[in-house]
Amino acid sequence: MDDIAAELDQLAIEVPSWAYGNSGTRFKVFATPGTPRTVQEKIADAAMVHRLTGLAPSVALHIPWDKVDDYGILSSYAADHGMELGTINSNTFQDDDYKFGSLTHSDAAVRNKAIDHMYECIEVMNVTGSRDLKIWLADGSNYPGQADMRSRQDWLQDSLRKVYDRLGDGQRLVLEYKFFEPAFYHTDVPDWGTSYAHCLQLGEKALVCLDTGHHAPGTNIEFIVAQLIRLGKLGSFDFNSRFYADDDLIVGAADPFQLFRIMAEVVRGDGLSPESGIALMLDQCHNLEEKIPGQIRSVLNVQEMTARALLIDRTALTAAQESGDVLGANAIMMDAFYTDVRPGLAQWRETKGLPADPMEAYRASGYQDRINTDRQGGQQAGWGA
Ligand code: PSV
Ligand code: MN
């Protein structure tokens, strides 16, 4: 562990404000006691995750779910809790006007409304000091012939250009892709190639956001990671797990080996350092499990798979690859993957004055009981859908 401690220290994961609110499926949203009613309470919960793990110093906001009158006061509130406000997530998928699209809509008035929303998000970033504006579009169509897919690409580039030109120094736009849902026939930004093409046209402040849940089964996601890092166009991750579609489950829960392989490419591409500019975010929902321990488990999963990825013997791997030693090379990867890093990470935490077992420390802290008692009345925060 000593050999990888310096790199491990660099790991910083951004948690999503919406993970602390209620969420569910279109069938039912189960509420939990203690759920935040305000963005301040979400930030307080996120701060608890960071206090116990030392891994999650920033929290991403979603506008309008986290709308407040004064973002300066909100930033100070976050700072008082040892947190920073991170990526600003735009939302152009819950307004009736966006039924047939937002930045890609055939009607310029609707496109302008969506562009104005992006401007509003940039205004928020100007106050919070956030670097990234995240754009995910629900835009698409359900039936062949329903929409002019080709024109929509042109409208999309025009709209994005207007947003891009509004970005200030040090600000960036990250364009997320998703292959389906809510549109079922065609999606306007379905894959990394489409996102990359638009970002390339826009310029260096536009980068791709890779949500691990947004690929077809069997997709080699680590290849996409390697390619985007190689091209200098990987802006951020939205980490989560999927079994079937966009399941938004705890990262590393469905397929820890896949998370290991992804982190191996991040490490291979020097993507852990702040200078890489790659934001490691979570984009998850906790439908059944308690939310704060769910987030603790998530950041620990990322740390565990990162540690294993850092343990890959790169020199030996390169030698095996170059000598055509197929099984030898594979064994080097598997040795790293099968290494139990949990005792080493517990020690790493103790050297930093953190609890050796953050899950247990949360249970023992009494925080959940406290918020269950304190947070009475008001409207519990939810996904908004
Ligand atoms: C869309 O499925 C998405 O991944 C986008 O990042 C949204 O902003 C987010 O989910 C909402 O949870
Ligand atoms: Mn996402």
UniProtKB/TrEMBL annotation:
Its EC number is 5.3.1.14. Gene3D superfamilies: Divalent-metal-dependent TIM barrel enzymes (3.20.20.150). It comes from Arthrobacter cheniae. The keyword Cell division does not apply. GO terms for molecular function: L-rhamnose isomerase activity; manganese ion binding. Keywords: Cytoplasm, Isomerase, Manganese, Metal-binding, Rhamnose metabolism. GO terms for biological process: L-lyxose metabolic process; rhamnose catabolic process. This is L-rhamnose isomerase.
